[in-house]
User: What shape does this take?
Amino acid sequence: MPLLINTHEVIILITSESGVRFRLRIVRAGEAYGRTNALTADRDLVEFYDTRYDHTEFGQFVQRYYVETLLDDRCPAHPGYRYGDEGCRHGFGGLNLDTNAGEDWWIDPAAMDVVRAWLRLEIER
Ligand SMILES: [Zn+2]
Assistant: This one.
């Protein structure tokens, strides 16, 4: 019988520009995570899984981040500015889940916009 750790799953499916479909899962602070669910999140996390491979119930685990890291809008190239500020023409851009994986694990800017909107909706709700 499966052991139910989290009371609910917060999941979204995102297709990247390269056509790879990812399953993203939010782990709220205080919830269990990790391969054997032995870890407890100290802050809200989001995990990225590649759905092409069923290594876990969600797919192949690729990467996890603090939600606040992905939502951080301070521009590294323009200290003191946030994306979209006057004086900074940058946007959030995409996300490279693994620099060794090439195009497959690149989440393009349009897909990341959806991811960030989803994170804000779920986390701030
Ligand atoms: Zn900038």
Observations:
- Residues 75, 77-78, 81, 88, 90 surround zinc ion (CB under 6 Å).
- The beta strands are 10-15, 21-27, 32-33, 39-40, 45-50, 60-66, 95-96, 106-107.
